[in-house]
Amino acid sequence: MSNRKKTSLWVCIDSVETAREAAKQGMWTAILVAIFTAVVTVIFMTMGETPEGFPEIDAWAFWDVGLFVAVAWGIHKMSRIAAVAGLGLYVLGQVLIRISMPSIAPGGLWVAGLFILGFVNGVRGTFAYHRLRRAALTEEN
Predict the structure, then answer these.
(1) Is residue 6 in a domain?
(2) CA-based nearest residue to 41, from 24, 14, 54, 59
(3) Is residue 2 situated within a structural domain?
(4) What is the DSSP string of 29-59?
(5) 19, 54, 78, 121: which could form a disulfide with 25 (CB 3.0–4.6 Å)?
(6) pLDDT one-digit tens code per residue, 4-16
(7) Has residue 12 been placed in a domain?
(8) pLDDT tens by residue, 37-60
(9) What value does the CA radius of gyration of the chain take, rounded to a whole number of Å?
(10) What is the number of domains present in the chain?
């Protein structure tokens, strides 16, 4: 285990264990995005109409939920593809939201920034995990 200090937002990756810790941030971020998307979709669908200033949200949003659940599972399995896909999907979604709703509260950028950081840590963790694991296997041989 690493002797270096870690922060809750940025894990110092110097071992397979710390790589897994960083990747878990990406996994939990994907789970939070899936839960938030599902809750907002259900609320808007039960209201019958989307409040003014919001893009139209319908059952198709559950595809996003499924994608982020798949991303979380992939990151849990230490998939680099899933980690990069999660980061890309989230950033693309945020760009599209900002374009379609320019009047959105700027405070939402802080939350988006934290989520992006979580996904970046997922990417860092999965890539470092495979690199460190390969190095450990090479040293054993």
Answers:
(1) no
(2) 59
(3) no
(4) HHHHHHHHHHHHHHHHHHHSSPPTTS----T
(5) 121
(6) 555 567 888 999 9
(7) no
(8) 999 889 888 887 776 666 677 788
(9) 18
(10) 1
pLDDT of residue 1: 46
| Separation CA 27–CA 6 (nearest Å) | 18
Q: Which residue has the higher pLDDT, 1 or 91?
A: 91
**Cα dihedral across residues 21, 23, 24, 25: positive or negative:** positive
CA dihedral 73→70→127→6, nearest 10 degrees, is -60
* 3, containing H or E segment: none
Which pair of tokens denotes residue 58?
A: 């319908």
Q: Using alpha carbons, list the distances in angstroms from residue 4 to 11, 12, 18, 55, 129.
A: 10, 7, 10, 45, 17
Full domain range(s) for residue 58: 18-140
Amino acid at 121: N
DSSP conformation letters of 65-112: HHHHHHHHHHHHTT-HHHHHHHHHHHHHHHHHHHHH-TTS-TTHHHHH
Q: Would you say residue 10 lies in a domain?
A: no
* Local structure of 2: helix, strand or coil: coil
Q: pTM (2 decimals)? A: 0.86
